[in-house]
Structure prediction request, 460 residues.
Amino acid sequence: MTEMNQQSYLTKIDSLDRKGSGRAVVWRDTGQVNPKKLKLTIPQTIPGEQVQVTVDDPEKRWVRVLADEIVESSEERVDPDCPHFNLCGGCIWQHWSYKGQLQEKTRHVKQFLANQGFDSSLVHDTMGMEDPWRYRNKMEFTFSADGELGLHEQGNFRKIIPLHTCLIAGKQMVDAALIVANWAKDHQLSGYNKDKHEGLLRHLMVRQSFVTGELMLGLFATEPPVAAVNDLIARVQTNCPEVKSLMWFENRDWADRTQSEQAHQLAGRDFIYDDMLGYRYRLWFDTFFQTNPTQATKLVELALEMAQPKPNEKMIDLFCGVGTFSLPFASKVGALAGIEIVETSIESAKRNAADNGISNTTFLAKDARHGIDQILEEFGAPELLLLDPPRSGAGGKVMRRIGRAQPERIVYVSCNPETFAADIKELEPFGYQLIEVQPVDLFPHTMHVECVALLLRVAE
Prediction:
């Protein structure tokens, strides 16, 4: 592309896209009577800022481009702390003050609720963290084709930024990851080439309990453990005694996910222990557990406060996972039934309940839509229902089944305000009213936000 094809524009950031990057619109002169609209996605910008950009191919209708210059910066702009910020795609809001991030997340939640016709004044200010750093208890790093361990480049899934630090992960987690990275370099082990589908090392998963201090390291590779693994075991045991689970997982699938076809236990257990609100959980490599334990504790406490569970009540915990909400609630209700489609999570939930001496629970491995029907038939109608669905939401069919079950109180825990707003709209015809929504920041320096909401049945 020659410079003659380039065009420079001065424009204003008017909004954010779904990934948290700034958006702007310019009009390009085509030599015709009417100019044509060019939509721009400009990362690392803040709404209201005026920026200068250069577009290489102005014939397109949409272009992603970095700003050449921030001409008028927002009062909320700050200097990023992480040396990888300009390239790494992990946390893209480090240029934004934490106060500004929280305000934007509140606005974000209010907007989606208003779009569905709800009163946005029911949304409280987002609950932030006292210290929004080193909050993650799980990270997944990727090996580049040449064996470097790091994180994906922003906007380029095939480029890996070598890891030197990560300010949102626990320090011991980063130190452990660097031990693995140096081991791979010293033995000149190849990384996985996504285009050619060849190479040995694919991913490294690191998770840690901030309560027990136990660490898990999980290497994902295309072959069984190689001879050099003995040196890895020795390095980890010598330099990182907090590692209580060192695993090697074979994964030959083309999909770029941390999945396992065959597991090899190199040292320690195949799980670690974690605690939340005094309840103990076993976490395997594929166990879903909130990645910000400080804020996750607040989520559970908020859910308990909103729900007001009573000893004589029945409760359903939909999308219950390994029992993160089930165990604290089961201690306060007469009986609890948990539903989750992932069988290994249900087995974990049963084991976690037993480990904590909780005997009033029933756990069913089934999809939410059919699981509700079976539980209602066997368990009876609940007074209280809690759901914590994936980002895609529960969906209309599940929400209508919930509405027909007619629980007195519904607590909805959401990681996606858009699908949350659409889901609860389905409950209005069944006589439910939204009472309050509390956003909670589980992912500082990203655009993601969790919500805990209470709905009451106010009409027959």
